[in-house]
TrEMBL record:
Matching Gene3D superfamilies: Immunoglobulins
Protein name from the UniProt record: Ig-like domain-containing protein
Organism: Ooceraea biroi
InterPro entries cross-referenced by the UniProt entry: Ig-like_dom (IPR007110), Ig-like_dom_sf (IPR036179), Ig-like_fold (IPR013783), Ig_sub (IPR003599), Ig_V-set (IPR013106)
Domain Ig-like: 1-111, 120-185
């Protein structure tokens, strides 16, 4: 038996579970059974009428096949409308009839993730700042599973001073809302504080969500600081 399925999927999508098997000798197929976390949710028995039977399981919704596709039920099924509860271990179990009554199985794991509805947002800025004035901004990502990793950059370079703590809010179904603060003041860079010089500064917040077998999910938000000369003593955002 060879069991094939994706290792990861996004909420609301569908996945195909394929169980490739071959019977050696004179035995015939008795049944193909599908399990999630050791609980059966689908059964195919070619000698029964009807040949297929479904059992309700949280997070499992099997797509019904048309009459022309029903013969494929013995080797593949499709799960649709995935939710976070669809994550778990799936098993395909194949049994034969007499004289051997053999049973074999294979398992595979599925992780269902929920991506943020949109990219991160930067809030807390004023339209004008004086040179040397403190600048505080907050970056917030929308709820997701797994939670997003947020970081700040200035002109594309990672912020090197110690960042302020990350706030986390847990929602139903495991969704996680993440926020991180940016705090900048006039000071000595060796002490972990960034010095605003006379230049254009692009301050960005980036979020990253690690995915299994896929490229990481990345998005960003930006605000631009236009720092005037010390004589003008103004910082503006745009």
């Amino acid at each position: 038996v060879e069991f094939k399925m994706p290792t990861e999927a996004v909420v609301g999508t569908s996945v195909d579970l394929k169980c490739e098997w071959r019977i050696l000798g004179v035995s015939n197929l008795y049944s193909v059974k599908w399990y999630k976390d050791d609980h059966e949710f689908f059964r195919y028995v070619p000698d029964n009428n009807p040949k297929t039977q479904m059992f309700p399981r949280l997070g499992v919704k099997v797509e019904k096949r048309s009459s022309s596709e029903k013969s494929s039920n013995q080797k593949s099924i499709r799960l649709k409308d995935l939710v976070l509860e669809s994550s778990g271990q799936y098993k395909c179990e194949v049994s034969t009839e007499a004289p051997f009554f053999a049973t074999t199985f294979q398992t595979a794991n599925l992780t269902v993730i929920s991506l943020p509805e949109r990219g991160p947002e930067i809030t807390g800025l004023s339209s004008h700042y004086a040179v040397g004035e403190n600048v505080t901004a907050n970056c917030t990502s929308w709820p997701s599973v797994p939670k997003a990793n947020l970081r700040w950059t200035i002109n594309g370079e990672p912020v090197k001073y110690p960042s302020l703590p990350t706030a986390q809010t847990n929602f139903p179904q495991g969704l996680v809302h993440v926020a991180r603060m940016y705090y900048c003041t006039d000071g000595n860079s060796s002490g972990g504080v960034y010095v605003f010089a006379w230049a254009r500064k692009m301050v960005s917040c980036l979020f990253r969500i690690k995915r299994i077998g896929y490229g990481d999910e990345i998005a960003s938000a930006h605000f631009r600081l236009r720092v005037s000369s010390p004589e003008n003593s103004k910082v503006t955002t745009s």
